[in-house]
Amino acid sequence: MPIIVNLDVMMAKRKMSLNELSEKVGLTLSNLSILKTGKAKAIRFSTLESICEVLNCQPGDILEYVD
Amino acid sequence: MEIKITTNHILKVLEILSWIIFIGLCIEAGGTVANTIITLFINPLGVGNFWEGADYLSSLFESDQGYFFIITLTMIIVAVLKAIMFYLIVKLFVDKKLNISQPFSMELRQFILNLAYLALGIGLFSHSGFEYSLWLTIQGHAKADLQSLHIAGADVWLFMAVILFVIVQIVKRGIEIQNENDLTV
């Protein structure tokens, strides 16, 4: 898939675990895992907004397009 | 007191109806097979056991056993296909493969596809039975009452087959959308 999710990179930079992120964002661990492993087919703006707010980053820091 | 009819209630009623129809079709198919074998190989007077179609089949049997065999073979194939169709419907309920929370699945698609093929088969064989009885009428035999031979309504079965094939395409798209929704975070 051309869109890569760099969630683990941002989580490492902010020193945040998956459990902590899941609690703060309000997403289940399984859904976060789907996102982190690149299996997600789509992401809601509300979810992206929550993640960016918690990790204090831009959407471009999490989502990357590769050819 | 307000009585609320839920999807589960409707499904339960449909399950009971399906069982009743399935048992009836099995009796019809089994009876037709048994009567045909008895009439052809054991006792020709068995032709009188063919319920409403006895008169027509009696005259056909007296005229030519080959004609009788072809008509009864068509009746048997149609009855068996109908029984298989309702067997699949009953099996769907018994195996509890219908998941209301995630209804679109490959099993449902395959089930509807099987029903479509069976409806197509029933329609085609019923139509061939109709054409054959028409040919027999031209040959000088009595006009067949297709309703009494249980091979009437070929056009309805073919219409149902077409509708089911269209529904299969819709379910296929439903599966894609459901999968995408499941992987949307």
Automatic annotation (TrEMBL), chain A:
<dbReference type="InterPro" id="IPR010982">
    <property type="entry name" value="Lambda_DNA-bd_dom_sf"/>
</dbReference>
<protein>
    <submittedName>
        <fullName>Putative transcriptional regulator</fullName>
    </submittedName>
</protein>
<dbReference type="InterPro" id="IPR001387">
    <property type="entry name" value="Cro/C1-type_HTH"/>
</dbReference>
<dbReference type="GO" id="GO:0003677">
    <property type="term" value="F:DNA binding"/>
</dbReference>
<feature type="domain" description="HTH cro/C1-type">
    <location>
        <begin position="7"/>
        <end position="62"/>
    </location>
</feature>
<dbReference type="Pfam" id="PF13443">
    <property type="entry name" value="HTH_26"/>
</dbReference>
From TrEMBL, chain B:
<dbReference type="InterPro" id="IPR021354">
    <property type="entry name" value="DUF2975"/>
</dbReference>
<keyword id="KW-0812">Transmembrane</keyword>
<feature type="transmembrane region" description="Helical">
    <location>
        <begin position="111"/>
        <end position="130"/>
    </location>
</feature>
<keyword id="KW-1133">Transmembrane helix</keyword>
<protein>
    <recommendedName>
        <fullName>DUF2975 family protein</fullName>
    </recommendedName>
</protein>
<dbReference type="Pfam" id="PF11188">
    <property type="entry name" value="DUF2975"/>
</dbReference>
<keyword id="KW-0472">Membrane</keyword>
<feature type="transmembrane region" description="Helical">
    <location>
        <begin position="150"/>
        <end position="171"/>
    </location>
</feature>
<feature type="transmembrane region" description="Helical">
    <location>
        <begin position="67"/>
        <end position="90"/>
    </location>
</feature>
<feature type="transmembrane region" description="Helical">
    <location>
        <begin position="16"/>
        <end position="42"/>
    </location>
</feature>
